[in-house]
C-alpha cells in the first residue's frame, strides 16, 4: 500500500510521512504483542481449568465405579431387577395360596385328597398359569421388556424409549388375552378332578394338614416381603448411583473433547509465533521530483456549481412556499380553464403636459373595455340561455368583487339586457353603501316575506339596471336562515320573470357559509381574485367548498396590474371575523 502526504514544503512532507509511519508500526507491534499475550494467557487458563475439571470428574467416576462394583453398571442393574421381579412373583403366589388355604379352613373341611383344586373357586391358581407354555412365553417377554424400561437411562421422549413402551403395551395385552382364555377353561372344568399319582400328593397332604400349610405360608410371607424391601432399597440406591455415573461420564466426554480442541489451538499458535509479521515498511518517504497536480481550478468550479445549485434550490423553495397570486397563471388549474377576463389595476399618475382629467378618462376607458371583454365571454358561455342568475363571489375579502359587480351590471345593461343587482352580502352590504341605500329595506325584508316588493327595487342612472339593497337587519340573525329554507328560491323565481340577468354580490366563500348556500340555488358562480391579495391555498379551499355545496363555477375574473405599486382605485373590505385590510 502506498502512503502519500501533501504539504507546501517537500522536506516537511518527508519528515511528517516518516514520523507517521514509524508511529504506526510501533502502534501495530504493541497492539499485536498485547493482543497475543492476552489471548495466550486466556488460552492457558482455559487449558489448566479443563485439566483440573477432567481430573475431578475422573476421581468422581472412579468412586462411583467402586460403589457399583463394576465399570458396566447396566448388567448389575438388570440382574437385580430380575431378582426383584422373581421375589415379587413369589410373594403374589404365596398370597394367593394363603387365600385358598383360608377358604378351605373356613369351609370346615378339606376337599377329597384326590382333588388338586379347591371346590367353588372361579379364579385358577398361579401354578395353573405356569403349566401353560404359551402363557409362560408371554409372561417372560412382558417381564423382559418392563425390566429394560426400568433400568434404561433414556428420557421418556427418546425414540427408543417410545418403542419399548409400545412393545410393553403389546406384550401386556397378549398376556391378558391368554390369561382370559385360561380363566375360561378353569371355569368350564369338570366337577371331578383327575386323581393324583399315588404316593406323591397324597403322601404330602397326609404329612401336612391345610391348617399347617396355612401357618407355614403365613410365616414365609413376611420373610419374603422383608427380603423384597431390602432388595428394593439396594436397587434404588444402585440405580441412583448408576444415573450419577452416567451423567458424570457424559460430562467427562464433553470436557475431554473441549480439552483436545484447546490443546490443538495452543499447538497451532505456538507454531505461528515464530513467523515474522505481515506488515513492514519497504521504503522510506521521499520528496517527488515535481509538485502534484494543482486542483484549485477544479475546486473553484465545484464551489461555483454547488453555489448555483443551492441558490436555485432556495429560489425554488421560496417560490413553492409563497402562496400569493401575482398573475392569472398563478391561480390553480381549475380556475384557469373557465377564465373570463382580466380587469386592470392602474395607478393614477399625472403625465407631464397632460391634465389630470385626461389620465383619469384613459384609465376609465381601459376598465370599461376590460369589462366589455368579460361581458362578451360571459354571454358567450351562457350561449343564449334564458333568464340567468349569477353569483359574484371570492375566496376571501379584499378582491374587489362588489366593484366588479357594479361594472358588470352596468355593461350588461348597456348591451340591452334588463339587469338587477342584489346586495346578498348581508354582513357588509358594500353594494348598498355605494348607491347610498344602506338604510333602505330590500333583500332581508324580501326573505322574511318570501316575496320581493317593487318598493324595495331602486333604479340606477344606467337605463335597464336596477338594484335590490341588502335591507335593514333586525339583529336576531334569522334572516340568514332564509337563504336555505326556500325563501331565497321564491324571491329569485319572482325576479326571473322580470329581469334577464340577476347578479348577486355575495360574501366571500371561506369566512362564512352564505355564499356556499346561495351557490347551489343559482345558475352559476363567478370567482373574482386579486393579485397580492388572493392566495392559492385559499382559492383551492374555496373551490372545494363550492363543489361540496353543489355550486357550478361559471368563470373566473382576475383583478391585477402589470406592475407592483400603488393602484389607481381601491376600497376597504373587512369582516368582523378577520383583520380589516385596506388597499388604495
What does this molecule look like?
Among the domains are: 10-68 and 264-272; 121-190; 295-324; 328-567, Rossmann fold. 57% of the residues lie in helices and 8% in strands. It is built from 17 helices and 10 strands. The protein has helices at 10-68, 73-106, 126-130, 133-151, 159-187, 201-207, 210-272, 296-321, 333-336, 356-382, 401-414, 430-434, 443-449, 478-481, 487-496, 514-519, 536-548, and strands spanning 339-344, 388-393, 419-423, 458-459, 465-468, 501-505, 524-530, 553-560, 572-573, 581-582. The strands form 2 sheets. Strands 1-8-7-2-6-3-5-4 form an 8-stranded mixed beta sheet, sandwiched between helices. Strand 7 (524-530), helix 17 (536-548) and strand 8 (553-560) form a beta-alpha-beta unit. The longest helix has 63 residues, at 210-272. The chain is elongated, with a radius of gyration of 60 Å. The two termini are 77 Å apart.
Q: What's the order of the H and E elements?
A: HHHHHHHHHEHEHEHHEEHHEHEHEEE
Q: Name the average pLDDT.
A: 79
Radius of gyration: 60 Å
CATH fold description of the domain at 328-567: Rossmann fold
Any idea what the shape is?
elongated
* Largest sheet, spatial ordering of strands: 1-8-7-2-6-3-5-4
Q: Regarding CATH, which class of the domain at 328-567?
A: Alpha Beta
- Tell me what the CATH architecture of the domain at 328-567 is: 3-Layer(aba) Sandwich
CATH superfamily heading of the domain at 328-567: P-loop containing nucleotide triphosphate hydrolases
- Give the fraction of residues assigned to helices: 55-70%
Q: Beta-sheet strand percentage? A: 5-15%
So how many helices? 17
- Termini distance? 77 Å
Which residues sit in consecutive blocks of at least 5 with pLDDT less than 50? 108-121, 190-207, 563-584
Total strands: the figure is: 10
Protein structure class? alpha/beta
Q: Report on the biggest sheet.
A: 8 strands, mixed
